[in-house]
């Protein structure tokens, strides 16, 4: 198969999960798409001759988690200010929009914010571990992505889940 | 290969994380087409602007916002702002500027597509810069004499590293009463009235040809520039991006980090020049339209700032972040704005109907103003 076809295969195989991971981090479809496209463009430009090589997967996941980490850091910086704005507006929005929101979009958004707030209280790598795994990465891929020993993925994941559960519980308990 | 999601083990954690998952799977076919389009475009052309969607022709951002971004946001590191203010290019030719502070970026602002028919596909903006061989070639492409700064920071050559132009174009937007009504109802604003003549009224945005001059440190390429800009945009701070890149980790497919370092550690300059864009309309008077736009549900502080613009038909609002320090200046007697906006310093001014913008890396306001004054 020609290299171009191999790249297309590679793109089609992995795009969904890369997008899924970045969407979970950014919460924004366009942002996630832009980041994913940029990632594959970089890969294409710097990429190997052989897109079917298994090492390329590791490369992709490293780059994807790096992009996710950057997005997460950006979100961390924005979060305080936006959260303030969000909270200030909330009572008003609840009053004015609740009746016009039969699909529960607003409530869903609030619940998503709660999850993000909890994730932000974890170490960035812990959040990424959870999000990568939830995006469908295998233990082996998670290990490659975060440069950790494949044998410790299970332990680290369990720890991250416990930490998440604790802070998430606290978040939900807050009025 | 592992395509089906392998959820995390704890049911409660899984349930929480499920909330963050995409609601529907992405359109992989569409994504692949877009990937090819961007890739082929990048290999053919110079990209100076920081908005890939505008450049690859799939811009989904509001037209006028796109236009305004091109006009002023030509900077490498301007804070991305979903700019409603920028849609205020109504009926209008630039003679002055004013900063508009946008405090809350979390509040999505209504975009024009909610209010009518956007331009037909294929007739949307094409703002892809074309590289020019010389200043005189660029001058004939844009229809005025391109001017250059003669006070450049140390280390930069007197000649621009890249000369590129974009073509002029007109895009039309048609207001639709039904769409607008539906949108306003959907946000619970049944109280907002439409001007009766509003349905079918059109707005035309005329963008004029623009020239972009980049002065880059020796040994850096445009790809490095793009990478630096993309990094800065993603992380929100050039310094952070820089240190990440400099460490060389953990990003495998990075650009040439030495060149990016050179770029971010030495001065570089971008100059943009264009005839003022203009907007005209049929079917609705400027005052009616302005009144209607100002009645829309936008944050109160933003509305107050927009209302405060006296000569709104000739004053271009420049979206500024909460930490921005944009202020009015005079550049050789011509009105303009200067200061830090987002992570970058910028100067914009208008002289004899031509709008100029300069921005750069590693330059303070004073040196950038001196540079601006030397453009002639």
With strands numbered from the N-terminus, the spatial order across the biggest sheet of chain B is 4-5-8-9-15-14-13-12
Number of helical segments with 4 or more residues of chain A? 7
- Shape summary of chain A: globular
Overall shape of chain B: it is globular
Radius of gyration of chain B: 22 Å
- Strand tally of chain A: 0
Number of domains of chain A: 1
Number of helices of chain B: 12
How many strands, which pairing sense, and closed or not: the largest β-sheet of chain A? none
Number of strands of chain B: 15
SSE ordering of chain B: HHHHEEEEHEEHEEHHHEEHHEEEEEH
Mean pLDDT of chain A: 78
Oligomer: heterodimer
Gap between N and C termini of chain B, in Å? 61 Å
Provide the low-confidence segments of chain B as ranges. Answer: 1-6, 43-91, 232-255
| Helix content, binned percent of chain A | over 70%
Tell me what you see in this structure.
The complex is a heterodimer of chains A (175) and B (376). Chain A has 175 residues and is mostly helical. In chain A, helix 3 crosses helix 5 and helix 4 crosses helix 7. The radius of gyration of chain A is 18 Å and the shape is globular. Chain A is built from 7 helices and no strands. Chain A has one domain. In chain B, helix 7 crosses helix 9. The longest helix of chain B has 17 residues. Chain B has 376 residues and is α+β, with helices and mostly antiparallel strands. The radius of gyration of chain B is 22 Å and the shape is globular. Chain B contains 12 helices and 15 strands. Chain B has one domain. The chains are: A mainly alpha (175), B alpha+beta (376).
Can you give keywords for this protein?
heterodimer, A: 175 residues, mainly alpha, 7 helices, 82% helix, globular, B: 376 residues, alpha+beta, five-stranded antiparallel β-sheet, 12 helices, 31% helix, disordered N terminus
Summarize the structure.
The complex is a heterodimer of chains A (175) and B (376). Chain A is an all-alpha fold.
